[in-house]
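To whoever is on call:

I kicked off a structure prediction for a single chain this morning and the downstream step that reads the tokens threw a length-mismatch warning. I double-checked the sequence; it's 193 residues and nothing unusual in it as far as I can see. Pasting both halves so you can look.
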Amino acid sequence: MPRGKAFDRDEVLMKAMTVFRDKGYAATSMQELVRGMGINRFSLYETFKSKHELFVQALQAYYENVALPFFARLRDSAQGLRILEATLMELVSRIQTGESPNGCLLCNTIAELGAKKDKRTAAIVARYLKRVEDDFHAALVRAKALREVSTDVNARERAKVLVAYSTGLLSMAKVLNEREMHESVRAAMAALR
């Protein structure tokens, strides 16, 4: 009689997200995944079929469980510029404090695989970029309503700039010190006005 799975699928998928985030897709070996997920190779293949399939599922799980909840504050808050600055500062803080020392799986994937044409990975990344843009846009519209930024500001264009800035910010935070990063965020906020 076949033995049932002795692991929680969602739990091991979260562990895979961390391995891929820290090492990148190409540099992650199956042995590192087995070790990091705490399951054997047979179970990994039986459950996820391949490294690529595991990666796609981990990327989708990261989008749903990490990125969406993190950026939802931009859409859900009653604040304008204050929530924008707090969100950018927390991105920096997560890297600087070691909570997420290797940044964001989605942003790392953009840097590593952006030019490659895997339709499923590209679709997840595109959904992420669009959703983050929409969340930044919501906060900017609110900032305009609160008269924190000029009514002449094009909130959609600025939201696109903030998506690019926040993606780059995650890379810069791996190299620059906290003071330099805070200065960068403050300069970006000043440019919004």
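Update from on-call: the warning came from a stale cache, not from the record. Cleared it. Sanity check on the structure: The longest helix spans residues 119-145.
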